[in-house]
Write a structure and sequence with these properties.
Helix content is about 65%, strand content about 10%. It has five domains: about 80 residues, Winged helix-like DNA-binding domain superfamily/Winged helix DNA-binding domain (Arc Repressor Mutant, subunit A, Orthogonal Bundle); about 80 residues, Arc Repressor Mutant, subunit A (Orthogonal Bundle); about 110 residues, Winged helix-like DNA-binding domain superfamily/Winged helix DNA-binding domain (Arc Repressor Mutant, subunit A), CATH 1.10.10; about 80 residues, Arc Repressor Mutant, subunit A, CATH 1.10.10; about 80 residues. The longest helix is centred in the C-terminal third of the chain and has 33 residues. It is globular and about 75 Å long. The chain is built from 24 helices and eleven strands. By secondary structure, the chain is mostly helical.
C-alpha cells in the first residue's frame, strides 16, 4: 500500500475512532492479516483494548476476519478493508443524496445506519422515534421510506459472510463451484469467475430476501403447518436482520450527477435535463460504476411520451417538443470530446444509449490535462494530449508537433516522467542496449496515469488532514473557550483578538473542508468510476 494512502487511512481512523483503533488498523495495514495473539504483540496494547477496537471496526465494516484451521484448532485472522475507511469521508454526500431523492426520513435512516455501521430495523425505529406516543402514520411513513431504500438497493441486508475477508470469500466460492462440477472446462471456469466477480460488485443484492414484505401464502389442508412456519420466519426477519448501506448505489447517483453537470457546462441546462432523464430511465439496470459500459437503451418516442420529463425545459424550440428532442439528442451524440450518447438503432425514432465507459475515459483525460496545466503549464498539457493522440514519439518529433524547442520539450517531458504521467520506452538497435545506439520513445498509458493521479490525490488529501489537525492543536485553548455554555449564550465575553482568531480559524477550516470535498470528487472519478 502507498505511504500517503496508509497515512490518510490512519488519520481518518484517528479522527473518528481514537488512537487505539488507529494503532490496530495501521498495524494490520502494514503487517497484513494477523491473528489476535500476534496483533496484541505488534501493537503493544492491552488485550482488552485490542479486542474492543476490533469489535468496533468489525461493526463498522472496516475489519474482516477469516477462520483458518491450524492442526486441531481454528485460528481467526483479521485484516483491514482500506476502501471502507476511505469511503468514510463521503458519508455526508450519502446523507445528502438520501435527502435529495427520498426525503428527510430517508436522510435520518441513512445517517443512523452510518453512525452504527450496521443495525436492525427495530433499532432504527427506536432511535429515531423513541416515544411510545408516536402517531402510527409517522411510523408508516418511516417504514415506507425504509422499504424504498431497500427496493432501490441503497440499503442492503448484512449477509452471513459480510465480515469475512474478500479474497478468502472469493477462494471459497470458487472452490464450492468447482466441487459442484469437477469436470469444468477452462471456458466454464472463466465464466464462473466472471459471474462471481459480478456478484461481488453488488448484483447479489437483487435476490437477497429482505423480510420487509409479506409473502402471499395460500393455506391448504395438507400444508397449513408449513405455510404458517414460512410466514412466521418472514415476519420475524425484519426484527433479526441487520442492515447496512450499499455504497455502489450512491456512487451511481454521484456519477450521474457528474455527467449531467458536464452536459450543462458543454451545452446548456436543457441538455442537462435531457441527459438526466436518460440516466434516470436506465438507473434501475445499473449495477456498479466499474461494470456499467452503457445505459439502458431509450427511444425518442419513449422520451416524448415520458410524463416525468418536462418538455418545457427544452428551451431551443419549445413549440415543437419532438423537434427539440431530436436537436438535443443530436448535440449530445455529436460531441467529439465527450461522446454522451450513441445512436444504436432507428426504431422508435432512434434508439440511444449513454456511453458510460467512453465518458469515464474522457473525464480521466480531462482531469489529467487540467492537473498538468495547473502544475507544469499549458505546454505540458499540450504535450500530454499529443502523446495520447499520436502514440509513441521521440523527443524531436514531440518538439516539432508541439511547436516548441527541443530544450522546452525535454524539460516538460522529464517533469511529467518524474510524476508518472508519461512513460519512456527504449528501443535498442543492438543487443548490448548501449544508450548511443538506442531510440527512446515517449508515450502515454492512461491506466498508469490514473494510478499516478490517485496517489497524488492521496498525498494532497493527507496534507490537508495534517494541516487541519495542526490548526486544531494550535487553537485548542480558543476552541475550548468558545464551546463553553456561557460563551455560546453571550459572545460579547470574547475579546476582539479572540473574535478575530475564531473568524480566522473557521475560515481556514472551511477552506480545508472545501478542498477535501473537491479531492474526494476527483477520487470518485479516478478510483470509483
Amino acid at each position: 500500500m502507498a505511504t500517503h494512502q496508509a497515512q490518510v487511512i490512519a488519520l481518518i481512523l484517528g479522527e473518528q475512532f481514537g488512537e487505539s483503533a488507529q494503532i490496530v488498523a495501521s498495524t494490520l495495514l502494514s503487517k497484513g492479516r494477523l491473528p489476535l495473539s500476534q496483533l496484541i504483540t505488534q501493537t503493544g496494547l492491552p488485550p482488552k483494548q485490542v479486542r474492543e477496537a476490533l469489535f468496533v471496526l468489525i461493526q463498522h465494516n472496516i475489519v474482516s476476519y477469516t477462520e483458518a484451521p491450524e492442526g486441531l484448532r481454528v485460528v481467526v485472522h483479521y485484516s483491514v478493508n482500506a476502501l471502507q475507511v476511505l469511503l468514510r469521508d463521503r458519508f455526508p454526500e450519502y446523507i445528502r443524496i438520501a435527502k435529495l431523492r427520498f426525503g428527510e426520513k430517508a436522510q435520518h435512516i441513512i445517517a443512523e445506519i452510518l453512525k452504527h455501521g450496521k443495525c436492525t430495523f427495530l433499532h432504527l425505529q427506536q432511535a429515531l422515534y423513541p416515544m411510545e406516543s408516536t402517531p402510527p402514520d409517522i411510523l408508516d411513513e418511516f417504514e415506507d421510506a425504509f422499504n424504498t431504500l431497500i427496493e432501490q438497493n441503497f440499503v442492503v441486508r448484512v449477509g452471513d459472510d459480510d465480515s469475512v475477508n474478500v479474497l478468502d470469500r472469493k477462494v471459497s466460492e470458487e472452490a464450492a463451484e468447482v466441487a459442484k462440477n469437477p469436470n469444468m472446462s477452462a471456458s466454464e471456469k472463466t465464466k464462473m469467475k466472471k459471474a462471481l466477480e459480478a456478484k461481488s460488485k453488488g448484483v447479489e443484492f437483487e435476490d437477497m430476501p429482505t423480510g420487509m414484505k409479506r409473502k402471499l401464502v395460500y393455506s391448504f389442508e395438507e400444508g397449513d403447518a408449513k405455510a404458517a412456519k414460512v410466514y412466521d420466519e418472514d415476519e420475524n426477519m425484519a426484527e433479526r436482520a441487520y442492515w447496512r448501506i450499499n455504497p455502489s448505489r450512491f456512487h451511481i447517483h454521484c456519477r450521474n450527477e457528474v455527467l449531467t453537470a458536464l452536459a450543462e457546462s458543454r451545452i446548456n441546462t436543457s441538455a442537462k435535463h435531457l441527459l438526466n432523464a436518460i440516466l434516470t430511465y436506465g438507473e434501475p439496470s445499473m449495477k456498479h460504476c466499474k461494470a456499467d459500459e452503457v445505459s439502458a437503451p431509450i427511444t425518442l418516442t419513449h422520451l416524448g411520451s415520458d410524463t416525468t420529463f418536462d418538455k418545457s425545459l427544452l428551451t431551443y424550440n419549445p413549440s415543437t417538443p419532438r423537434a427539440s428532442l431530436q436537436d438535443y439528442l443530436a448535440l449530445l451524440t455529436l460531441d467529439q470530446d465527450f461522446p454522451f450518447l450513441t445512436k444504436q438503432d432507428e426504431r422508435g425514432g432512434g434508439q440511444y444509449v449513454c456511453n458510460l465507459l467512453s465518458l469515464k475515459t474522457a473525464l480521466h483525460q480531462h482531469l489529467i490535462t487540467t492537473y498538468l496545466q495547473e502544475k507544469f503549464g499549458i505546454v505540458a498539457s499540450r504535450i500530454w494530449r499529443l502523446l495520447h493522440t499520436k502514440g509513441k514519439l521521440d523527443e524531436k518529433q514531440v518538439a516539432k508537433l508541439a511547436l516548441i524547442s527541443n530544450k522546452v520539450a525535454r524539460e516538460k517531458l522529464y517533469e511529467m516522467l518524474n510524476v508518472g504521467l508519461i512513460q519512456l520506452q527504449d528501443v535498442p538497435k543492438t543487443v548490448d542496449h548501449a544508450p548511443s545506439r538506442t531510440f527512446f520513445l515517449w508515450y502515454v498509458s492512461l491506466p498508469k496515469c490514473v494510478d499516478a493521479m490517485i496517489l497524488e490525490t492521496y498525498h494532497m488529501l493527507s496534507n490537508l488532514k495534517i494541516r487541519r489537525l495542526k490548526e486544531y492543536n494550535a487553537n485548542g485553548a480558543l476552541i475550548e473557550k468558545i464551546e463553553r455554555s456561557d460563551i455560546q449564550e453571550d459572545e460579547s465575553l470574547l475579546t476582539d483578538g479572540e473574535r478575530k482568531g475564531v473568524e480566522k480559524f473557521h475560515k481556514v477550516m472551511n477552506m480545508i473542508r472545501i478542498s477535501e470535498i473537491r479531492l474526494d470528487r476527483a477520487l470518485l472519478i479516478l478510483r470509483d468510476f
